[in-house]
Amino acid sequence: MSAEKLIKNLEKLLQLHQNLHKITLQKTESLKSENIEELKELLKKEQMFVQAIKQLEAERVQVTSEFLGHAENLTLSACIEKSSGHEKQSLERIANEFTEVMEKLTAANQLNRDLTQQALQFVSISLDMLMPQESLTNYNRPDGNKTQSDIKRRSLFDSQA
């Protein structure tokens, strides 16, 4: 069996991953500029690409199984070993491009994760500064009940002062 069908499928998968990388880079810029609306739209686009990748990956597994003639070890390396000539060169090129795109995606996703974590830490610190926890007191009510004012967090700015 020829590897042409497999090569076409892998090229489509590669293109989807490259587009996913572009969206990831756009997400980085949205996180830096704190543009939440753009980030929401990018997350929707990203989800669409992930679904398309899942579907193409299922097709790839089937096509690879047909090409190799068995259902185990359905890797690109196994396909490269079985192929020859122009098909082998095409598969090797695709494997190299996949490696490159995956490394870029991993790095960009790590950066986005770090930016998101820093933003969450900033929000948490800001909330703690505006609404600090009431310090522990030595006195508790004898009946053990807490009043409404005991339950509320104290604000840094006391409006009754």
Automatic annotation (TrEMBL):
It comes from the Bacteria. Residues 136-148 have a biased composition (Polar residues). Residues 136-161 are annotated as: Disordered. InterPro entries: FlgN-like, FlgN-like_sf. Keywords: Bacterial flagellum biogenesis, Coiled coil. Residues 3-59 form a coiled coil. Residues 149-161 have a biased composition (Basic and acidic residues). It holds the Pfam family FlgN. This is Flagellar protein FlgN. It comes from Metabacillus litoralis. The lineage of its organism: Bacteria, Bacillati, Bacillota, Bacilli, Bacillales.
